[in-house]
Amino acid sequence: MTEDDASRVSETLPEHEVRTALLELLAEVGTVTATEAAARLGYSSGLCSFHLRQLARYGHIEEVPVSRGRAKPWRLRGQSSQPVGFGELARGLEDESYQQWLAQKERVPEQWRRDEAFSAVVYLTPEEMASVADTVRRALARYQDREQRPTIRPDGARPVAVVTRVFPLV
After folding, report:
1. What integer best gives the mean pLDDT of the chain?
2. How many of the other CB atoms lie within 10 Å of CB of 129?
3. What total of structural domains would you count in the chain?
């Protein structure tokens, strides 16, 4: 990734885990309401609603026109307004961050030098694959408030990247 690419990414990609999760969900399912996003991602519907409005405010998503009811579905804006697909950018940033970690690992305090990188190939049905992803999201949900509420972070807590990719092998 060139310096220009990195600059463009920081201008177009929101650096917030809830927003990132919402964008990934929208890329996966097409349209979603705050309530649906909350159920899928393990956040509150109020938090999802707030971040969906922020994503819309900065042009990443748009409301889906509906004829009736209170539901407010959202969708990604046309791909033409985004220089690179979101998934590709996210994967590139994840990979780049991991490479930076490996290059600087010896400079961090001893207790932070261990990482928990692992992978597995398992045989699943589509329903089981969705269940695995939901289980990971729920496991991480109990730590989500710590970003917005620093006072509840335990002493010594630092930002930690958790990257999970659940996809069928072709």
Report:
1. 79
2. 14
3. 1
Query: Does residue 164 sit within a domain?
Result: no
Of the ranges 1-10, 54-63, 66-75, the best mean pLDDT one: 54-63
Full DSSP string of 110-165: GGG-------------HHHHHHHHHHHHHHHHTTTHHHH-GGGSPTT---------
Q: Is residue 157 part of a domain?
A: no
pLDDT at 6: 36
Q: For residue 78, what pLDDT is reported?
A: 64
Mean pLDDT of 95-113: 85
For residue 8, is it within any domain?
yes
